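> forwarded from #structure-qc
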């Protein structure tokens, strides 16, 4: 019995460490020990010792008073290593550059992670546009063209299992009815691309296509354009460019 307890202890510590880092990753800025303890629910003495260890290792940082905590620089180094070593990101670079040139709009590459999409690469628009997405940002899949393009590669029953019971509304346009979303995903399968009409960011329409180098798809690309600049001819150009980019990326990633 004692051996079993000893064997389980390192696993518990590892889980707590990961949960703590994910807490900081999802909440930028500095946080008091009381705030962290309230969020994660660990005993205060254990939490304090874990935080001090992570501070010494560079995964967590403190403010000058030593009483507030935030994510450390080593998390950035690991994240950068993930991007630099990812084969899909490497294979997509030329296509993302070309798509950016063809559309003159902002282009993203993202990966499905549970019920969210995580941004892996971005090409900024040629036009002035306030930056709204960065590499490493996580957004709900149901509110983005990227996420909807990826969810559409799953069967409906699997989508029902994956989606949270309540879909968060990021804007007044976000689809929050699960069955309405599933119906929309059926249309995505038919036409080959997904659309987010101001569902994630007011004033922006986005078009997304999944990269089918595996089934269900894991990665997708999108093009974001301000509604004020979205004429029918520009919309048609973007849709065609996205589908061509999908075909090029399918060839570029066929060995993965």
């Amino acid at each position: 019995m004692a051996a079993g307890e000893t064997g389980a202890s390192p696993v518990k510590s590892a889980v707590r460490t990961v949960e703590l880092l994910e807490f900081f990753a999802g909440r930028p800025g500095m946080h008091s020990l009381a705030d962290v303890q309230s969020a994660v629910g660990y005993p205060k003495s254990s939490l304090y010792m874990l935080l001090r260890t992570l501070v010494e290792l560079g995964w967590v940082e403190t403010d000058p008073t030593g009483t507030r905590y935030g994510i450390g620089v080593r998390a950035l180094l690991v994240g950068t290593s993930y991007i630099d070593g990812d084969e899909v990101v490497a294979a997509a670079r030329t296509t993302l550059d070309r798509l950016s040139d063809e559309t003159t709009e902002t282009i993203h590459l993202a990966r499905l992670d549970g019920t969210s999409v995580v941004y892996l690469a971005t090409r900024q628009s040629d036009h002035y546009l306030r930056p709204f997405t960065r590499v490493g940002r996580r957004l709900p899949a149901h509110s983005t063209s990227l996420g909807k393009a990826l969810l559409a590669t799953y069967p409906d029953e699997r989508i029902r299992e994956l989606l949270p019971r309540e879909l968060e509304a990021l804007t007044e346009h976000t689809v929050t009815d699960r069955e309405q979303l599933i119906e929309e995903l059926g249309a995505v399968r038919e036409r080959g691309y997904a659309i987010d009409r101001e569902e994630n960011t007011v004033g922006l329409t986005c078009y997304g296509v999944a990269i089918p180098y595996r089934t269900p798809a894991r990665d997708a690309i999108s093009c974001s354009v301000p509604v004020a600049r979205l004429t029918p001819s520009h919309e048609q150009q973007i849709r065609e460019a996205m589908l061509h980019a999908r075909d090029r990326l399918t060839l570029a990633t066929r060995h993965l």
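QC bot note: Residues 1-8 have pLDDT under 50 and may be disordered. Residues 96 and 131 are 17 Å apart (CA to CA).
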